[in-house]
């Protein structure tokens, strides 16, 4: 999903059209003298005042949001080296947005209205709080800092997605590198591929350090100590509470990870013909640039859909994902999605580049929904396509008259990430694939290997997301990690949480964390994905057992309107309902890794048996 630097107005614009100028404050400041014989107008109640403010505010917010999205879209889909037209237009649109959402008058009015919380409706309070939260991302009391930050973010995006990756002297895409890392068996070549994928790091260092300061300074103006704390507060949590939560999740998955880690070290050493099994996994051995997904290590006979996906092609995958959502009762994607999305890789001879990481956009907080992807026919993109459509259907479902524009968001950010990943999991289970005709339904398949492959995807992700990424960003933003320790800290965390080490020493001349796009353009939020996996297993457990009455390991959601209802009910209120209450109400549970741990429990016996006599190093 895409997150924006949010907005505000210049003083001139404010007086002309800001909602505050039109909102009477008669009840709090009565005129000193009341003209005789004048009929005393009834002062509007706080509820009426909030309503008037929010009506105006939301209309302007939505308009500026759409302009910002449109500019950002262009900046992310057409990256031309040396071009300044797009970045200039994007910076201006974002500055207008910032000038509005962070305006001193808006902030003052929001605070004033929130002082009368007791007299307002819950929906009003939630909107006002959201607007105040948004304001902290661009307070105009420090307009210059905000302006510099907007510029720096635009420049960082250009550097990040304009980078020309080279392998063996030729330009390659990140899709090419990912494919090579999944397939190459020669460890020396693997190391070169991995190193090629990290070459971008140093080019991002100066920009990232600058952004850290600007991001911290921005939110400090409204009283948040640092940018990490600011992002955690979106969940109604302190930084410490968030770190405690992600550490707990990591610990709950740790016994499984320890088995997977031991298993992978021995299996990969065998595969690459290395006699001495290493204590820690060389990063270049793994089929993913950051070691966040090892599922390509295992091929389950009878369940490998890569060949059929390659044959059917990229377009089919997007259409198929849509059909799956439709089968649950969601509507067809609107024409604008097909007309304006950027779904496939650019042609080889394109004179420009585009953002190479998948995202979904709610352009106008209304019906204009688009996705930016580089879909190819393979399992990874098959899942990612389902993931992105999850965002799109979330957007479309909470875009309804009951949900005001300011609350058109996930119950929390993790929910937004969970929906599509859940559908991605469902779309790879055997009964589903058989129903779709993607595999031979009569083929005998090994359930343990299937579960192992899933664990190498979902369980392996947790130490990366809740460990390495979250801890690093917490250090970076909140603890002001010194700039000569950025890479050292990254690899210390990778060793501690993932049991992964770099193939050769990686000094501070590299910046390996910056090769992860989120570090640059989705800052201090990566725990969203860890939480999303935890949530998705909770939802899946409920759907399988309570709705479908199927084994969670072998479900087929296809065509179940009841499953669609269940998901749509979670999506429909957006962020107008408390996220904890939603989970409790829909699953009967609080947020917990219980379902995820239980799902993989049958694998533990197998792994322990496989790992018998092997040396454990974590
Ligand atoms: O970044 C994403 C999505 C963004 S909408 C494609 N994901 C994480 C990642 O790629 O690192 C999905 C799961 C993990
Ligand atoms: Zn996403």
UniProtKB/TrEMBL annotation:
Glycoprotein among keywords: yes
Record carries keyword Signal: yes
InterPro entries: Peptidase_M2
Keywords linked to the UniProt accession: Disulfide bond, Glycoprotein, Signal
Pfam families, alphabetized: Peptidase_M2
Extent of Low complexity compositional bias: 21-41
Region spans: Disordered: 21-42
Secretion signal span: 1-18
Protein name: Peptidase M2
Organism of origin: Hymenobacter glacieicola
């Amino acid at each position: 999903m895409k997150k924006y630097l949010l907005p505000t107005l210049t003083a001139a614009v404010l007086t002309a059209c800001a909602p505050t100028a039109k909102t009477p404050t008669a009840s709090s400041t009565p005129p000193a003298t009341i003209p005789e014989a004048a009929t005393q107008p009834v002062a509007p109640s706080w509820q009426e005042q909030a309503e008037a403010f929010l009506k105006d505010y939301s209309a302007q917010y939505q308009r500026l949001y759409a302009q910002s999205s449109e500019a950002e879209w262009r900046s992310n889909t057409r990256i031309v080296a040396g071009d300044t037209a797009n970045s200039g237009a994007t910076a201006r649109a974002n500055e207008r947005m910032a000038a509005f959402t962070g305006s001193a008058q808006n902030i003052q009015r929001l605070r004033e209205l929130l002082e009368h919380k007791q007299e307002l409706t819950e929906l009003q309070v939630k909107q006002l709080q959201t607007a105040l939260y948004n304001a902290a991302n661009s307070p105009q009391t420090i307009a210059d800092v905000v302006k510099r930050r907007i510029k720096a973010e635009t420049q960082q995006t250009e550097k990040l997605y304009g980078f020309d990756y080279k392998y063996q002297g030729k330009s390659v895409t990140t899709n090419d590198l990912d494919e090579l890392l999944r397939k190459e068996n020669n460890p020396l070549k693997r190391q070169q591929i991995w190193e090629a994928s990290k070459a971008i790091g140093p080019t991002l260092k100066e920009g990232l350090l600058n952004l850290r300061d600007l991001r911290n300074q921005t939110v400090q103006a409204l009283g948040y100590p640092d940018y990490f704390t600011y992002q955690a507060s979106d969940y109604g949590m302190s930084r410490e509470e968030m770190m405690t939560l992600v550490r707990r999740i990591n610990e709950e998955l740790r016994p499984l990870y320890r088995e997977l880690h031991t298993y992978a070290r021995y299996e990969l050493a065998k595969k690459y013909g290395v006699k001495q099994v290493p204590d820690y996994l060389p990063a270049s051995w793994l089929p993913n640039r950051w070691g966040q997904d090892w599922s390509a290590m295992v091929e389950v006979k009878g369940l490998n859909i890569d060949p059929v996906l390659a044959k059917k092609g990229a377009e089919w995958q997007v259409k198929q994902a849509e059909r799956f959502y439709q089968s649950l009762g969601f509507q067809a994607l609107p024409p604008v999605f097909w007309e304006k999305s950027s779904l496939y890789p650019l042609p080889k001879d394109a004179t420009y580049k585009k953002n190479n990481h998948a995202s979904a956009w709610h352009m106008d907080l209304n019906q204009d929904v688009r996705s930016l992807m580089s879909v190819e026919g393979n399992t990874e993109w098959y899942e990612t396509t389902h993931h992105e459509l999850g965002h799109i259907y979330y957007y479309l479902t909470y875009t309804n008259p009951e949900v005001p524009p300011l609350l058109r968001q996930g119950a929390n950010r993790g929910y937004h990430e969970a929906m599509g990943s859940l559908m991605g999991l469902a779309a790879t289970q055997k009964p589903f694939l058989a129903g779709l005709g993607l595999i031979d339904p009569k083929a005998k398949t090994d359930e343990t290997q299937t579960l192992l492959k899933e664990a190498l995807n979902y369980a392996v992700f947790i130490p990366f997301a809740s460990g390495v990424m979250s801890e690093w960003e917490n250090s970076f933003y909140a603890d002001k990690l010194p700039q000569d320790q950025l890479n050292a800290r990254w690899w210390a965390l990778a060793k501690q949480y993932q049991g992964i080490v770099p193939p050769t020493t990686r000094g501070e001349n590299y910046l390996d964390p910056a090769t992860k796009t989120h570090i640059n353009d989705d800052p201090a939020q990566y725990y969203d994905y860890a939480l999303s996996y935890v949530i998705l297993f909770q939802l899946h457990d409920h759907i399988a057992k309570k709705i479908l009455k199927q084994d969670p390991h072998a479900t087929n959601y296809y065509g179940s309107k009841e499953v669609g209802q269940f998901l749509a009910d979670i999506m429909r209120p957006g962020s107008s309902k408390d996220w904890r209450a939603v989970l409790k109400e829909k699953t009967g549970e609080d947020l917990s890794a219980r379902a995820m741990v239980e799902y993989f429990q049958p694998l533990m016996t197998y792994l322990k048996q496989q790992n018998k006599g092997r040396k454990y190093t974590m």
